[in-house]
Amino acid sequence: MPQLAYAWSLGFLIPEDKLASTQDRHRGLCEDMGAARCQILSLERGTGTDQTGAGSLKLRVVSSEARAFSSELSKVIEDAGGRSTDTKVEGEDVSKSIVDTQARIKQRELLVARLTAVLRTRKGSVSELVEAERSVTAAQEDLEQAHAWLKTQQGRVAMSEFDIRYLAIAPSANAGSVGAQLGDATQASAATFLIGLRAVFTLAIYLLPWVLLVFPLGMLVRWLRRKGERTPA
Length: 233
Fold this sequence. Notes:
Elements: E1 4-15, H1 19-33, E2 38-47, E3 53-62, H2 66-79, E4 83-93, H3 95-121, H4 126-158, E5 159-169, H5 175-230
Helix pairs in contact: 1-2, 3-4
């Protein structure tokens, strides 16, 4: 049977006020399945001051449940008022790689067994024995690498990768969101008014001492000028 490694790529448009909660629900679906069936690889979310932004979620899901899991993701998107933009599924046949690696493992196992037997029964100089030990060590390292590669390939077949991308759209219109926006606007207007009022009072406090000093001097100068005009030459 062909050994196929699947990779799912999904794109969704989400109301900007639902992006975070929808992404969290998708993460929750994975966590509810357990680590043996679903694994979270990465989660990213970026939002601006106006709640616009985007996000991504990368998962690994057991291949036998990948299609059903994709349907659950789409259902969550629909419930949030979003929609799917693109769906892409790619399958890579890794059968040859797995078979070749299995054959390589068998060869290395035979080589390690043979070299180990020769090393046990061989008689020779110290340098020859050291060289034989190095050969056994190199063959053993190669065998371990082959086992690791085989495990990786088999893991790709057993678990399908999901690359989910979210893009924010205009927020869903409802009484709550409209009320919140009006409340924010009212608070912003009140804050601006208070800031302006504070600036006026601050300026008045700084200028009041100078007014109290200059005003009497000005009145004195005016009185002296009038007195000089009334005095006959």
